Amino acid sequence: MAHEHDHDHDHSELTETQLRVRALETVLTEKGYVDPAALDLLIETYEKKVGPRNGAQVVAKAWADPAYRVRLFKDATPAIAELGYAGRHGEHIVALENTPKRHNMVVCTLCSCYPWPVLGLPPVWYKSAPYRARAVSDPRGVLKDFGVTLPQDTEIRVWDSTSEIRYLVVPMRPDGTQGWSEDKLAELVTRDSMIGTGLPKSPKDLAK
Amino acid sequence: MQLRTRALETILLEKGYIDPAALDVLIETYEKKIGPRNGAKVVAKAWTDSQYRQWLFTDGTAAIESLGFSGRSGNHLVALENTPAVHNMVVCTLCSCYPWAVLGLPPVWYKSAPYRSRTIADPRGVLRDFGVKLPKDTEIHVWDSTSELRYLVVPMRPVATEGWSEEQLAELVTRDSMIGTGLAKSPMDVK
Amino acid sequence: MNGAHDMGGMHGFGPVRPEPDEPVFHAEWEKRALALTLAMAMPGGWNIDASRFARENRDPAEYLAMSYYQIWFAGLETLLKERDLVTDDEIVVGHGLHPPKPVKRTLSPDDVLKVLHRGRPTERDTNTKAAFKAGDKVRAKNINPVTHTRLPRYVRGHVGVIERVIGCHVFPDSNATGAGENPQWLYTVRFGGRELWGLDGDPTSAVSVDAWEPYLEPAR
Fold it and tell me: What residues have CB less than 8 Å from B62, skipping those under 6 apart?
């Protein structure tokens, strides 16, 4: 039985985990191995500061700025660092170009490798067994779970993140966005479109 | 699980799908009547009767049926001969297929993940778990029961048993020796 | 190792179920578990490959029943106990009972952002030449180590094409056991859907994995 969220456990099991984590934090703090202020800062960084809005800016820039697009696909790590995004679990990023002929999807079958600096922490579904097991063997089926249907002749390329290379999908720019500013374009870029399990929003979706 | 089983049994009986007397016979048969003593008789006969032994290895189903053992999970039996050169082990990696007609119901370890996952990859390691060590040059054949064929290992006859009766010999044949995770007892073990 | 974590191609897990407007953390303890894991990497002295092995090296039934952060936390406990930084009785009681082991460094709050921003690149210089080039046909070896590897079972024995020569990177199979970084050439290898899954595979899909040279052999 695969558990995805802790509120699915019965109450006693949840409390036990909570207590164990708290106990370990106390022990590690008492021994001077960790500083509680550092812990709080780590949490704040990944809860509030680093997230998919970073990647959306990268994608929007690639849409609006042809020279940046070239740099991004040539060597994504420094191109992304131009926007100030870099670091842990993003030391080696490769940008993947979606085209009408090819759709890219990213997975980590073995654990949960994900490009933190541009997308933040991965969602639960990305780290869970259904996605990890099926993305490589039935990508169209997985896309159906996300409500996405692609033409039969679109090639689907699944990238299993088995090394420290991290993948960022650059979705296709939606129609009807000529002349849009980068900030406005960024609003169309969803997190799932940068993983490859979704498509960007259309101008109509924003108007809603 | 007790409550769920009882609940389902009640429903199936109420709907008349099954007869409670039939359930009782089924349970008694596999708890008390059919077990490894059947297979032990087969092995003991093969040790003493060379014609039977030949028949057993060419047509296991018929040879075993001739002793009165047949039926469910015994319709297609193959006997496997242990020799100094080859040691046989039987597993069902996919579920728990087992020669019920001659061995009864399988033990928990046979149906569990450690045995099912390791036997085909590390048979010597599994034998170690059973305290069995074979010579390095003995080849180990593992048989994964993926079809309706069921396998019965015929262990080697222990030394110093010349002239023993079939009944005496049958006492040396352990269940594990007929699965391949053990060896037959020696005369010293039964004294 | 051939553990439950190596689940590419497994059946039975059901559909993918995204949670709408999912919060980053589902419980307070998840935040602490993440932070503790990140903060202990420095004083703990383990590398990411060892930490991945610590997570995946458990009974498949347990692994599959645990939530993501439960796995992280179990991995952290394993690493700490293996290195005698914390003992079981201390975790039970929730207090240090034995004197702390001296550690090289701890993560100070002032260093957090810098350390995160710097990350831990795995590319290394090398004098060796890459054995393969883009376009080469290769076969993923049928290796079955009981220790850490990043070659998933679903590609082993299958033939793919070198898509890209990435560079020379720390080799997880060595690094996880403490045998050293042993950097190896790393490639992106593409496998066709039919090659991987036979007639049940989707001929319009392909899977790429990043594979180190020791995982690969030439194929015709």
Answer: B55
CB spacing of C169 vs A163 below 8 angstroms: yes
CB contact under 8 A, B121 and C60: no
- pTM assigned to the model: 0.90
Shortest CA gap C9–chain B (Å): 17
State the complex-level ipTM.
0.91
- Nearest-CA neighbor of A184 among A59, A93, A38, A70? A59
**Which amino acid is located at B20 in the chain?**
P
* Residues of chain C found within 8 Å of residue A22, distances taken between Cβ atoms: 29, 32, 94
Candidates A3, A10, A41, partner chain C, best to mutate (most C CBs within 10 A)? A41
For residue range A70-85, list pLDDT tens digits in order: 999 999 999 999 999 9
Domain boundaries, chain A: 10-48, 50-207
Predicted pLDDT at A11: 57
What is the rounded distance in angstroms from the CA atom of residue C66 to the CA atom of residue A3?
A: 6
Q: Map tokens 């995770």 to a residue.
A: B181
Distance CA(B101)–CA(B105), nearest Å, equals 9
Instruction: Check CB contact under 8 Å for A158 and C56.
Output: no
Using the beta-carbon criterion (under 8 Å), do C61 and B121 form an inter-chain contact?
Answer: no
Write the single-letter amino acid at B69: F
Measure the CA–CA gap between C201 and A47, rounded to whole angstroms.
Answer: 39
Enumerate the β-bridge partners of residue A155. A102
Residue A13: pLDDT band with limits 50, 70, 90: low
Task: Give residue-wise pLDDT tens across range C114-136.
Answer: 999 999 999 999 999 999 999 99
Interface partners of C (3+ CB pairs, < 8 Å)?
A, B
B-A interface (Cβ pairs under 8 Å ≥ 3):
no
The per-residue pLDDT for range B134-145, each reduced to its tens digit, is: 999 999 999 999
Cβ-Cβ contacts under 8 Å, A153 against chain C: 204
Cross-strand pairs, C165: C187
Q: Does B113 touch chain C (CB under 8 A)?
A: yes
Model confidence pLDDT, tens digit, residues A37-62: 999 999 999 999 999 999 999 999 99
Instruction: Supply the mean pLDDT for chain C.
Output: 95
Phi, psi of A179 (to 5 degrees): 80, 0
> Under a CB-based contact definition with an 8 Å cutoff, are residues B63 and B79 in contact?
yes
Summarize chain A as % helix, strand, coil (round to 5).
50, 10, 40
C132: tokens are: 């393969």
Which of the following CATH numbers is that of domain B35-190: 3.30.1360.120, 3.90.330.10, 3.40.190.10, 3.40.50.720?
A: 3.90.330.10
Top-level class of domain A50-207: alpha beta
One-letter identity of residue C191: F
Strands B139-144 and A92-97: unpaired
- List the domains of chain C with CATH numbers: 28-118 (1.10.472.20), 137-218 (2.30.30.50)
B147 noted as active-site residue = no
The answer to whether C217 touches C158, Cβ cutoff 8 Å, is no
Q: Whole-angstrom Cα distance, residue B27 to residue A173?
A: 67
